[in-house]
Amino acid sequence: MSEPSTSRLRFALRTPVGIAASVGLAAIVVLAIVGPVLWSDDAARLDILAAAQGASRAHPLGTDALGRDIFYRVLVATRLSVTLALISACFGAAIGIPLGAIPALVGGRVGKLVTGFINLSVAFPTLLVAIFVAAVAGVGARGAVAGIGIAIAPYFARLSQTLSSSVAGSDYLAAARMLGVRRARLLRRHILPNVAEPLLITVTIAVGDSLLALAGLSFLGLGVQAPQYDWGRMLSEGLSQIYVTPVVALGPAVAITLGALSFVLFGEVLAKAAAGGGGVRWTRSDLSFVSLPPAGDGADARPVPGVLSVEGLTVSFPGGAVPVRGVTLEVAPGEIVGIVGESGSGKTLTAMAIADLLPAGGRMTANRFSLFGEDPRTLSDGQRRRLLGRSLAVVYQDPMSALNPALRVGRQLGEVAEVHDGLSKAQARQRATERLRSVRIGNAEARVRQYPHELSGGMRQRAVIAMGLMGEPKLIIADEPTTALDVTVEQQILRLLRDVTASGGASAILISHDVAVVSQLCSRVFVMYAGRIVEELDVAKLVSGPAHPYTAALVASVPTMRSDRTRPLASIPGRAPGPYDDEPGCPFAARCPRASERCRREMPPLEPHSPTHRAACWHPLDGLEDVAV
Amino acid sequence: MTTLAGSALTVRFGHGDRALTAVDRVDVDVPEGATVGLVGESGSGKSTLARALCGLVPLADGEVLIDGAPVRRQHGRAVDRHRRVQMIFQDPFSSLNPRMTVGDAIGEAVGAGKGASRRARTEAVGRYLDLVHLDVAVAGRYPSRLSGGQRQRVAIARALAARPGVLIADEITSSLDVSVQSAVLNLVRELRDELGLSLMFVSHNLATVRYVSDFLAVMYLGRIVELGPTEVVVADPRHPYTRALLAAVPSLETAAERGPADLELGDPPDPHHPPPGCHFHPRCPVGPVVVPERQICIEQDPRDGADERPHRTFCHFASASSNSAAPATPREEQVHVGCDR
Amino acid sequence: MIHLVPGDPVRAALGPTAPASLVAERKAALGLDEPLVTQYVDYVRNVLHGDFGTSMTTGESVTDVIKVRAPATFKLAGIAFLVAIFVAVPLGVLMAALTRDSRRRGLELGFTATAGGLAAIPSFLLAVGLVYLFAVTFQIFPVAGRAGVSSYVLPVAALALAPIAALARIVRVEGLRVLGQDYIRTARGKRLPARIVYVRHALPNTLTPTLTLAGLLLGGLVAGTVLVENIFAWPGLGTSLVQAVAQKDFPTVQALAVVFGTVVLLANFAVDIALGVIDPRSTILES
Q: Which of A249, A394, B20, B212 has the fewest CB atoms below 10 angstroms from its CB?
């Protein structure tokens, strides 16, 4: 296994579940090997006088009809039970895995046939298939193992099919093929290592399931036959005594359950280790805000008129990540401002914090936070809902995932009006249709009844914008609204945003990594780097006179239609600091050609360069020099 | 130096009514030592064309020619046993085997061609890493420990280790951060010049393609609609779609004055049922929707008779917005003055 | 099926001491001396007419046996299925809502462990345990047999408990996955009341994968009935099957294979159709 997964495995094994499963599994393996060696005599000893008795000091789990001690028999039976389960699981794997790999290797009609067959056979319950095979093959251990193996083969086949098709379609396999790597090596070095892990995990879980199935078959009398005995057979013998000496059934019952559980849990632990952590979950932020003490200079923290004013905005997550550090920005009525930054600069989280849409665990603090003249943190839940629901609209990056695939477009638009303006369903639908028309979606009446997947990418984004317009938004936050769209569609969406803000008198915050896009729409731009605002300037000055070296480098490194084709592009060496990095000084110092000792020690404040231009830099550019590459 | 060409290449997915012709009878040419930029939006078929040239998708028709000779086909795919064509993929996270170290991956590329001693291979790996400006220590790491930019460099090193004559770069910068993109682009240019490679550069980003390429091919819905030297196509686009595309590129220099471009193109068509004749006609600002007499756009595929038109534009009404002042062009491209109207 | 069996099945059924002539006579009566293809065609034709042949051991018409015993099995399985669905799905959804965003870690652990443990206990063990507890010790419910409502309780519980645990766990996981999707963030962004976000936005997207699982569940229940019936001496198809296999009564086994197989196929078909109706992206209806 590659290094990261061994450490994940170790981590997963340390959880309570992991420990329990490992201990259980180890115990079973030991018993299986050692049991018959140590105790088969004890287990076989007849004691007719003590036959068919319940728990006693000599026989803690009772005796069977011939007076043999149940406890020892359970221990000795471990080997047979586990061995049979292992054989069944491996048998099933041996049939199923190659079968599932066929569609990926062969393709075409044969492949489709095999796929259909697999899908069909997965539907049949394991036990039934096993019983029918046992009917043909004859009762007994052999028939049982064959039956169960055949019954679980489809599950392996299904998994194998999924895995092999994903590997077969991967780029690294394509690259290896193009390099002329021979098929044997392809299999050994590329395909197998990437499918082995999930398959092994499945085999482990399958052993547990086989154990249960075998026990079931033996229980029915169709599995292991006398004089052999496994747990299932013992259970069936014990069952006949259940009304007289119930404890006789207890031993095998516990053994079966614990045995199967150990295998299955261990397999699940392995699976979790392989899968790694989950993704980010979005939710309303935890609103038990602890507001920071006001800034030292006694800055006025009262809400101000205007659309948005936030000072010292910080977003933090448990574990010490602080992706947004002390952001200050204002948006006046009717203006469109841009926030520019690369991935990891904190621009999206800044917007989400303002919109009260931080992911789970995110906490937001700010010296001052004024939205439409109120501080949302001081409002009640209901008041906040009304304020934000009516006056704030958010446009997201990926319109396909932002819309609910199970609901019609009209419904998703209409419910905003139903909830916030109290419209009836029909009225809401009417308004939704109007809004769709206003964002230039043709045939709006039909579109209203459609589902999101029936619309093209550009149309979906227009629908999302229309959704934001259902109220009367005073602020539109657009987070990378065109990144997922084609460039011709992008222009249409940007124009739409401009028209919408102009006609409605709304303001907008446009977030993007694309400086050109931002400059097409915005009058003012904030440049973010490593969670902080490093520059605030008019769009016109972006090309002619940025003050911060990062801004200049960013602008210089992007090829434009006028870039000099004979010279290399400017590039920025190194990497941006992450949300956990807490070095003192300017975050760009490590990569900045103008950095001095002071830059590394002291964080420069955001200082006015001119009335409309602020930069956080000790050695700002003065617009006349080139930034050294 | 190697040349790569495609003749009447056609790639089709699915059959019957649900068939999708991703690449429709495309002729494309990568001359020796030149860089051809392939640009188009989503659904244009540019990535499929690139993959077809590499033999990664089966061809429904047409052939791939390397150094003028047609390449053998196996299961419909063009198979080049001499590894003269190599590809760098878009997603640096899935183009490297997560279970192989960087050194193993590049070493495999070195060794797969012929048997080589382990020491020789390790040395070669070191050299290729150096070529892409990566520290030799990276060879022992697994891809998951590298950044996107670093992984892309490894992918480039791996492709180069096979000593190809032609490199095909499929959207190699699209998944990278802005400040890393320029470094990778610089690297590609540098390597191309140093090693004398022919390069096909596929991207949806027109500015990037323009920066890297000598020739520009514009694709729309499976067809090349305009093809010519980059400077000429950019300065004097003849096809209405090319013009729309150029107008749509947000330009930092003029953005503040112009604002978003005024482009009302209408909805993109269903790729399963492309419009007859010229695929672009329902959205064309000078086509039959706007000028009803131009029915020829609906009836006739503009690729017939293209050779007589200015820098091989596939449009019935490619207009000359300027006169002949086109610069002298190398070899294949004939630039004819005059227009069809 | 009879031809897959090694050796001479008829002789095996009649016993080693049966005279050769009797064996030959039985073979002729069963049509086993005709070519394989004819036998298959005849069988299929008979099945379509509702005739499954005669039992090799009891001599009865298999169809009659099936007719008599099937209702018992279907009732048991059907009730267990409904109980499982109506308990597991709301439970899973509730758990998803309560434990989202890693809230109530204790509850999550407790639920996962309990459900995991219950799901791992094979139904026959559970049945045995239930019988012991409620029928023998506390004498609340009858021990075996089918007579009246109270006799249904234990068998249904034994059948349904493990599926409930498994299904509730999966519904919770699916629910959590849905709650993490972007469109839920959009719904919260629209400041819709929590009730609407859960019921209108999250629930429909949870139902689709749940439905698929429910189909598999039905198949598993059918298998479970075989075991449970044997424990509770339930006069259904499950007990017939086990008897038939033990006695090598191949016509019966074959017939039951057909019946069970058909039920499973129909269940899956129904699930596919339901999915096609519910999921707007599904193209099953088109095809």
A: B20
